[in-house]
Amino acid sequence: MGEEVSDGGHWLGSYLRARRELVTPSQVGLPTGGRRRVPGLRREEVALLAGISPDYYLRLERGRDRNPSPQVLESLARVLQLDDIERMYLLDLAAARPRAPRRKRSEQVPARVYELLAHLQIPAFVEGRAFDVLASNPMAVAFSPRLRPGQNRLRSLLLDPEERAFHQDWTKATANFIATLRTTIGDDIDNPRFVELVGELALSSQRFRTLWARHDVRNLDGGTTTVHHPVVGDLRLHRDKLPIEDVILVVYYPDKDSDSDEKLRLLATLAHTGTSDDQTRVGRPDASSDRPTR
């Protein structure tokens, strides 16, 4: 996160600048002719369209004014063509105030969730706020070995060639994951796990650096995805994310009696016949020594 981690006040300015560079003059009804030194809109153009002075907007982008009124923020959201999620993110950034460091708290998987995972016959796992896999059932590991406890889903997605081949639309998946991480972090910029993960990926992935600089935000609650499984082939599955206390239960399931349903049953059979004693304990607190620390 670089300087953004050390000073949360600059997040507002960084967000405004990133979004300004993504809006073209034609999108807001401005002439497109002439040479332009910057991508997207100029600062003075944003200020004009939002009904504020160029000097005041400059102070906002440079982090010198961190208390804009709701009316100013709503005007900027309109000019920058923010959707509802992006607009709320902007308002939350502006509302953030200096605070004492939050007490470091580990993400604990409730004991009953381990029992639930053991009974589910579909891929299911528990993830933390930074996409760390905290627990998983054998079907999840048969679905993808990157869903073992101790793995990080975003790191795998960006750095593991097998995970890249696993996704039908890797480009879309990476954009969604990184935008969701932005939303999740919010103003919790001093969280050690977030600082560690963002720092690692910023050094190791050009894709991450490019998307992180856009400041996209998104909620990744669920949806439908297609993956290329190396054994059973293509699977079209629905994904639901269910909050349980401080963690999230993620499940993948097919349409009933579909081709993917049949393939997932085959995968379950293969997972059952190939399960070792260690695999049956996947996700238990004593089953893995390399789970992420907080």
pLDDT < 50 stretches: 1-8, 275-282, 286-294
Q: Mind summarizing the main beta sheet?
A: 5 strands, antiparallel
Mean pLDDT: 86
In percent terms, what proportion of residues is strand?
5-15%
Structural class: alpha+beta
Q: What Rg is obtained from the alpha carbons, in whole angstroms?
A: 22 Å
Give the ordered list of helices and strands: HHHHHHHEEHHHHHHEEEH
Please tally the helical runs, counting DSSP H or I stretches of 4 or more residues: 14
**Shape, principal axes of CA atoms:** elongated
Q: Give the quaternary arrangement of the chains.
A: single chain
Strand order of the largest sheet: 2-1-5-4-3
What features would you describe in this structure?
With 294 residues, this protein is an alpha+beta fold. Helices cover 46% and strands 12% of the residues. The protein has 14 helices and 5 strands. It has a 5-stranded antiparallel sheet. It is elongated and about 70 Å long.
